[in-house]
């Protein structure tokens, strides 16, 4: 895995760890998909 993918993976894991109340699905891939969406969409 190259450095860019590692950075994105780390950021997604931090989002998941910091917001456990938002991610209540039992499916890990679904959780990661939602976290990736939050990473990519700027919150105003």
List the helices and strands and how they pair.
Layout: H1 3-18, H2 28-40
What would your notes on this structure say?
The protein is 66% helix and 0% strand. By secondary structure, it is mainly alpha-helical. Helix 1 (3-18) packs across helix 2. The longest helix is centred in the N-terminal third of the chain and has 16 residues, at 3-18. The radius of gyration is 11 Å and the shape is globular. The termini are far apart. The mean pLDDT is 91.
Salient structural properties:
single chain; 44 residues; mainly alpha
Summarize the structure.
The protein is 66% helix and 0% strand. By secondary structure, the protein is an all-alpha fold. The mean pLDDT is 91.
Average of pLDDT: 91
Question: What is the element string, with H for helices and E for strands?
Answer: HH
- Low-confidence regions: none
Beta-strand residue percentage: under 5%
Largest sheet: none
What best-fitting shape do the alpha-carbon axes yield? globular
Helix and strand content put the structural class at mainly alpha
First and last CA, distance: 32 Å
Radius of gyration: 11 Å
What proportion of the residues is helical, as a percent range?
Answer: 55-70%
How many strand elements?
0
Treating each run of at least 4 consecutive H or I residues as one helix, how many helices? 2
